[in-house]
Amino acid sequence: MSDRIKYNEPYAIEMRHITKVFPGIVANDDITLQLRRGEIHALLGENGAGKSTLMSVLFGLYQPEKGEIYKDGKKVEINDPNDANDLGIGMVHQHFKLVDVFTVLDNIILGTEPSTLGFLRKKEARKKVMELSENYGLNVDPDALVEDITVGMQQRTEILKMLYRDNEILIFDEPTAVLTPQEITELMGIIRGLAEEGKSILFISHKLNEIMEIADRCTVLRKGKYVGTVDIANTTKEELSAMMVGRDVKFAVDKKPADPGKTVLEIEHLSVRSRLHKKLAVRDVSLTVRAGEIVCIAGIDGNGQSEFVGALSGLEKCEPGSRIVLNGEDVTKKSIRYKNTHGVSHIPEDRHKHGLVLDYTLEQNLVLQRYFEPRFQHGGFIKFNEVREYSEGLIEKYDVRSGQGPITPARGMSGGNQQKAIIARELDRDHDLLIAVQPTRGLDVGAIEYIHEQIVASRDAGRAVLLISLELEEVMNLSDRILVMYEGEIVGEFDPKETTVQELGLYMAGARRQNGGEGGGEK
Amino acid sequence: MKKEKKGLLASEGIRSVIASLICILGGLVVGFVVLVLLAAFNENISFSEAFTGILTVLGGPFSAGSPHDVLFQFGNMLFQATPLIMTGLSVALAFKTGLFNIGAPGQYLMGAMGALIVSLSIPTTVVPAVVVWILALLAGILLGVLWGAIPGFFKAKFNVNEVIVCIMTNWIAANVVSWVFSALDKASNGFFINHAETKVNFIRKTATNGVATWSFGLNELFGGSYLDIGILIASLIAVALYIVMNKTTFGYELRACGFNKNASKYAGMNEKRNIILSMAIAGGLAACGAALWCLNGAQDFKWETYLTLPADGFNGIPAALLASNNPIGVIFAAIFLKYLGAGGSNLAAYTSFNEYVSPLIIAVIIYFAGASKLIKDLLGKRSRKDFVKIPDKPIVTPPEDPPAEPEPEEGPPADEPAEKTEGGEEK
Predict the structure, then answer these.
(1) Where are the domains of chain A?
(2) Do B259 and A401 touch (CB under 8 A)?
(3) Which of A21, A336, A338 has its CB closest to that of B265?
(4) Cβ neighbours for A209, distance < 8 A, ≥ 6 positions apart
(5) Does residue B184 fall inside a structural domain?
(6) What is the CATH number of the domain that holds B81?
(7) Cα(A213)–Cα(A203) distance, integer angstroms
């Protein structure tokens, strides 16, 4: 082990026997976490295992029922995030907390602005930020507006924010979920650099490859309980996943070769205007998806995938000349309900915005597109028994876990189980076409394995599957055909057996395109 | 999934009720402080009167002098609560759909206009009074529906904030009503307006055309008050609304739109139609309240409305808030507000405090009502802590075993244990 880790000093942070209970569920049950100075410590667990709760306790957002927190061997009370900040604890949240219309510099100093008589001393702040940025290799443009910069730079801004506040303990909550492969490599380098400088790092993730690559030790939680802490040098990916899930997990997706049948979805010359900047976000896309195959659209986030799916599902309007044909019927102008009831299932990208009514209970959410069917209503009155029975069936079949079963408010469920609920709902509806947009985003390996199995099963049952994913591993594993989308256009079509992640990456970044020659001339 | 020992506070409904009670109590305490201060600065009022004063407010109609007066005031309290129940329902329904219907006063005025014109202009000598009554009620509701649909339409089609359009429609209604009545009156040679000496500001009472809501002796039972079956009609509508909101697909859609417009759209609901419908129904409810009030037969409706909006329209907002937007709760919230109103009149009548003090106390209670959600949440926190004292065995554990693997034969069983021991050795 390198000598950056201080074995002889007291733990930088020690959380002892933390117990946190929510109505109906013990989120953290007697959990102990010990972080050494200079260490990169991974926190691994499935969704709903209690990782976020534990970090919220450390960050002062929740008060535990039992347990103590020690910093450098001294007991501390953390009652709110300000306390945490005073103790030098900083966090990069999964969803960044930045003000979009402020510059990078303004965001970094926000809350601790140096000022004289109410006037900002920005020069001083800028100097400190630039120093930090240089020391740690965090390349940012201090004067760019946050809304104009890449996700990777936004993340570096968040990291600088912590460093600017002289935080010693840095928490990264699933930092790689939103990054491209190149950005992930860069981030790993940054995190290593931070540890070398004596920062202690908590790295929350359920991506085993990353943990194996970067962490020194890893603490595993399962269903709110402490499973163990292992040295990464002495463990394997398989062992970690078994600890996390409680059983062995397959990483490769088992699937038979595709046996495509009739064409289910035909898209011709689809163009969609962005709501944001009114320019074409999707340009003249034509593709077909046949029954019994999984077609995947790969691409870096923000290359028109959201608008494409929006137009396909009916949430967005498409430009004149576009044509969407489902089972031989032109549905370009049909309503969302019509598509829903004529064979389209859609796992949406944003489960909170579109997928769920968070203030409704689980069972109410499970019938979100079916409540009007004769099975669930009679003369306009909802048949509550029928809804309950149906949702209990789905909950059991798809193993959706929640505090109070069908009557749990969706808001109170963990992200993974919310996603499972959506998947249960969409797969259980009669469908010929399944549109799955990042179906495993933010999920753990156990859940991913399960969802992949379900998607393959849907394909094998003769459904057409259109998968939109940012995760290349998922793309390679799952699809029968890969289309790469770059700046709203399909720039290449690949057979997953004959291509590599590197090749896809080049197309995703716009460096190359098929049948249009080299992509150097693109704007 | 059994919960052992649910604390009293664990139930959402009970928390709501307790929170409302705490609000009322807080309002009364502050009201008492106001009375004490007034007594302290006014040498004509003794401190003991502050005490009798707050009791008078708290006593509502029961603070009246004689048993007959108590009955009379009680009857009038129920009668006056009728339109307030309806405007409260109007606001509550819109809230449930995620809309703020501050247009209830305008809808109320339009409802009054529709009901009055129809009930006065169809002679009961030709058409039976029952039919006229029903037509008048429907006319009022119809106008309210149209009036409510306007902000709904603008919200749905152009995403204009409904509050702005509601306030505009309020004042448009106030002017339209004055204009229509003065024009009608001129056209009909003074048929609509009561031109008796001091009554030029008022529309003729509908009873002059033989149209009045039946009271079935309720008015005499309650000391000759105005009480009629309007209160029963309003209560029935509240119950019906409760059923619609909670038991039907329509209510399910409306609430879904209120909670999450995007998800409703994704699910194929027509969220624009739902916004318009919700506002239209809200308008109809408020207008129905006005119609029920006017059709009592003995009420004076002031037709020069262009300078003022009816208080019952705005007071629908606190009524809905006090009831946490529960339609059944709105019945009690509205009666309670009028109960305090009666207490306020008695405060002016029977103590040395003047009539301006009672609205102040009522206002304080309404302020507290605004905080009822906060109090409810605090109660929720308490109950959670109580609830947690027995966590030695987990209250709910997710199923212990992972679900059976779907392919039992497929996996090579020999490999799995081998891998495990490998990992173990490395350790």
Answers:
(1) 13-245, 250-343+432-523, 356-429
(2) no
(3) A336
(4) A237
(5) yes
(6) 1.10.3470
(7) 12
What is the end-to-end Cα distance of chain A in Å, rounded?
47
| DSSP code, position A354 | I
pLDDT tens for A325-381 read 999 999 998 999 999 999 999 999 888 889 999 999 999 999 999 999 999 999 999
Go through chain A and tell me how many residues it has.
523
Mark out chain B residues that contact chain A at CB-CB < 8 A. Answer: 1, 3, 10, 247-250, 252-253, 255-256, 259-260, 262-270, 384, 387-388, 391, 394-399, 402-403, 406, 410-411, 416, 419-420, 422-423, 426-427
Put simply, the answer to whether A315 touches B263 (Cβ < 8 Å) is: no
Kindly determine whether residue B267 and residue A248, on different chains, have CB atoms separated by under 8 Å.
Answer: no
In a domain, B372, yes or no: no
In a domain, B64, yes or no: no
Q: How far is A285 from chain B (nearest CA, A)?
A: 23
A185-229 pLDDT per residue, tens: 888 988 998 898 889 999 988 778 888 889 999 999 888 889 999
Architecture of domain A13-245: 3-Layer(aba) Sandwich (3.40)
Domain spanning A250-343+432-523 has what CATH number? Answer: 3.40.50.300
- The amino acid at B319: A
Closest residue in chain A to residue B403, using alpha carbons only: A399
Beta bridge pairs of residue A222: A225
Write down the pLDDT at residue A442: 67
Separation between Cα atoms, residue B103 and residue B279, nearest integer Å: 9
Q: Which of residues 51-80 of A touch B (CB under 8 A)?
A: 65
Q: How far apart are CA B3 and CA A203, in angstroms?
A: 35
Query: Would you give the distance in Å from CA B250 to the centre of its chain?
Result: 20
Structural domains in chain B (count)? 1
Q: Across the interface, do A21 and B391 touch by the CB < 8 Å criterion?
A: yes
A442 sits in the region (left: phi over 0; alpha: psi -120 to 50; else beta) called left
Indicate if the pLDDT at residue A519 is higher than 70.
no
B282-299 pLDDT, tens digit each:
999 999 999 999 999 888
Q: Which of B268, B302, B265, B337 is nearest to B91 (CA)?
A: B337
Interface with B, mutate which of A18, A244, A357 (most B CBs under 10 A): A357
- Single-letter code of the amino acid located at A28: N
> Least CA distance to A404: which residue of chain B?
B1
Which residue has 């359920």 as its token pair?
A: A206
Nearest-Cα residue of chain A relative to residue B410: A254
Residues of B in contact with A361 (CB under 8 A): none
List, for residues B79-135, the tens digit of each pLDDT value: 999 999 999 999 999 999 989 999 999 999 999 999 999 999 999 888 999 999 999
Q: Do domains A13-245 and A250-343+432-523 have the same CATH topology?
A: yes
Domain with B319, as residue range(s), is: 75-338
End-to-end CA distance of chain B: 39
Comparing CA positions, the residue from A192, A207, A248 lying closest to residue A5 is A192
Give the whole-angstrom CA distance, residue A302 versus residue B352: 71
How many percent of chain A have pLDDT more than 70? Answer: 95
What confidence category does residue B394 fall into, taking pLDDT thresholds of 50, 70 and 90?
very low
Chain A, residues 313-372, CB within 8 A of chain B, namely 313, 315, 335-341, 346, 348, 353-360, 364, 368-369, 371-372
Radius of gyration of chain B (CA): 28
Q: Do the Cβ atoms of A405 and B410 come within 8 Å?
A: no
Chain B residues near residue A23 by CB distance under 8 angstroms: 10, 384, 387
Q: What is the largest CA-CA distance in chain B?
A: 106
DSSP string, B56-124: HHHHGGGGSSSHHHHHHHHHHHHHHHHHHHHHHHHHHHHHHTT---TTHHHHHHHHHHHHHHHHHHS-T
Contact at 8 Å (CB) between A480 and A294? Answer: yes
